[in-house]
Automatic annotation (TrEMBL):
It comes from Candidatus Avipropionibacterium avicola. Residues 171-350 form the SGNH hydrolase-type esterase domain. Residues 11-160 form the SGNH hydrolase-type esterase N-terminal domain. Transmembrane segments: none annotated. The keyword Transport does not apply. Keywords: Hydrolase. The keyword Hydrolase applies. This is SGNH/GDSL hydrolase family protein. GO terms for molecular function: hydrolase activity. It comes from the Bacteria.
């Protein structure tokens, strides 16, 4: 990739998977060497829209430890940032967190001309007053755009070391909708999957497919091949097609995952409250009908002996008093909405990946 623009003198450019950097969030990367959220072999096996959306890089991360005060990203995107209800910094931008594991803080975001499909941007620029020390650095990939090429720019004289290892083996696999994918966070670090990953210090593979998280068995078959799953989270109610469709797809989706992974926990989520529910009673009725289906399916399978299947009802994760302020368009979340989701899910997910015998209801 040719890198033009900006002050790049004295910068060494690293590939995202170049040691000692750690690339995560792409479950099949070791197999395909592609910045893609599903394996290349899934093309033709899953719906065309899902296959196309797999090119978006939400959940991808590059991690390292460095004493560098400055960090750049050079990227060539699959297209311009033209969504009308989501900031370009979230759709096509990278952002950067620094600090120590479990206590990372936001330090910068790529800013660029939205119509450009290539850019060089500074994501970390520490002031001279900041003390010299080695810090953990995490760079999050864009949420709603494909990244065809990317390089991380680090000053040539900086120390570069491997990031702190994750606290436990495996990765969390999160499947769902446009909200799962990150619509409409202002920047990548604010989607709930990335918030959870920072807190848990383990990778979260984001398999949200905007408008197309419909629970198809073909998609379940592909997701079941993800290596080293520590937990599957299913959050596709919003695209399911309603209670009747959910009643058809959810048992089969769970059965496919369970056949491949008999002992891996599966967490089924019901949908958070829509901001539009105050104005449209039918939306509430549909959400509650889907919740009843999820309850019935999970309870039935638990009674049949699946002790690693769990249900967590998310309807009240966003407080009713502020639900109107937590979405862009009545459905897709703002950063505040994602924060409430992550905050409510964190103790549940932490307990399941740690092997707690408590149910999500007891945890809550």
């Amino acid at each position: 990739m040719r890198i033009d623009g900006g002050d790049v003198a004295g910068i060494r450019w690293w590939a995202p998977d170049e040691a000692p950097l750690r690339l995560s969030g792409f479950a099949w990367y070791e197999q395909d060497r592609a910045l893609r959220r599903l394996p290349k072999s899934s093309s033709g096996a899953v719906p065309e829209a899902v296959d196309a959306l797999a090119e978006a890089t939400t959940g991808g991360q590059v991690s390292l430890r460095t004493d560098a005060r400055r960090l750049l990203v050079a990227a060539r995107m699959a297209g311009p940032a033209r969504m009308d209800h989501m900031p370009p910094t979230g759709q096509s931008g990278f952002d950067c967190y620094i600090g120590e594991p479990g206590a990372l803080t936001h330090a910068g975001v790529a800013r660029f001309e939205p119509d450009r499909t290539d850019y060089v941007a500074t994501v970390l620029d520490l002031p001279e007053a900041e003390p010299d020390r080695v810090r953990e650095v995490v760079v999050n990939f864009p949420l709603y755009q494909g990244v065809q090429e990317v390089a991380i720019g680090i000053p040539e004289d900086a120390q570069v070391a491997a990031p702190t290892p994750y606290v436990r083996p495996g990765q969390i696999i999160l499947y769902g909708t446009s909200v799962t994918q990150g619509g409409c966070a202002s920047r990548p670090g604010m989607v709930h999957s990335n918030i959870l990953g920072r807190a848990l210090q383990m990778p979260v593979v984001n398999l949200g497919f905007s408008g197309n998280g419909r629970g198809e068995p073909e998609v379940a078959e592909v997701i079941a091949t993800a290596p080293d799953p520590a937990l599957f989270i299913l959050d596709y109610e919003g695209n399911s097609g309603g209670a009747e469709a959910l009643a058809r797809t959810l048992p089969e989706f769970i059965a496919i995952l369970r056949a491949a992974h008999p002992d891996v926990p599966i967490l089924v989520l019901t949908r958070v409250r829509y901001a539009r529910e105050g104005a449209f009673a039918t939306i509430t009725e549909r959400r509650l009908a889907c919740r009843a289906v999820a309850r019935e399916v999970v309870t039935s399978l638990q009674a049949q002996g699946d002790e690693q299947l769990h249900l967590f009802e998310c309807g009240d994760l966003i407080p009713e008093a502020v639900v109107d302020e937590c979405s862009v368009d009545g459905a897709h979340l703002t950063d505040l909405g994602f924060w409430f989701m992550a905050d409510g899910l964190l103790p549940v997910v932490r307990a399941l990946v740690a092997g707690s015998d408590q149910s999500p209801t007891e945890i809550r």
